Amino acid sequence: MEHIEKVKEITEDVLKRLEVAGVVTVDMDETGAYRVHIETEETGLLIGFHGRTMESLQVVLGILISKKLESWVKVYVNVGDYREKREEALMHMAVAAAERAVTYGKPVELASLTASERRVVHLTLAGDERVATESVGEGMNRTLVVKPKLS
Q1: Angle between the N-to-C axes of helices 4-17 and 52-69, in degrees from 0 to 180, rounded to the nearest 10
Q2: Radius of gyration of the chain (CA)
Q3: What does the longest C-alpha to C-alpha distance in the chain come to?
Q4: Which domains occur in the chain, in start order?
């Protein structure tokens, strides 16, 4: 808990260097990871296409904070309520893909998802006995496939 203020300072410094005005709040979750929340008028700039900029900011902050604290720490960044809205959209996408897979009896591919987004889809469909999910491919070409289970 004693490092929350330091995490906040580092984040505010990065925003200042990016010339982005915003309010930073930090807390720690039950796993010991720092949750950095940024409220700003420039959400689009910090979030980027499909959250890619936000994910990059998260990586950079994780490195900076870990170096400053001299121990590796996990950092999650959320800008506005992007993560909540994106997770909700991914859950809807997962359910729709499962319905298509079952209805047409064919696999449905979901491309261009980050590892954390694929995880949301896997978890969303884990309880659906009609389908199976699988990540295939490598690197940027990795896609998630929702397949109907053959009965």
Answers
A1: 130
A2: 18
A3: 57
A4: 4-80 (3.30.300.20), 85-148 (3.30.1370.50)
Instruction: Specify the pTM.
Output: 0.74
What are the pLDDT tens digits along the chain (151 aa)?
569 999 999 999 999 999 999 999 999 988 889 999 999 999 999 999 888 899 999 999 999 999 999 999 999 999 999 989 999 999 999 999 999 999 999 999 998 888 889 999 999 999 999 999 999 999 888 999 999 997 6
Tell me, what amino acid is at 96?
A
Q: How far apart, in whole angstroms, are the C-alpha atoms of residue 73 and residue 32?
A: 8
**Cα(12)–Cα(147) distance, rounded to whole angstroms?**
44
Place of tokens 């990586």: 59
CB 42 within 8 A of CB 48: no
Distances from the Cα of 82 to the Cα of 38, 72, 151, angstroms: 10, 26, 38
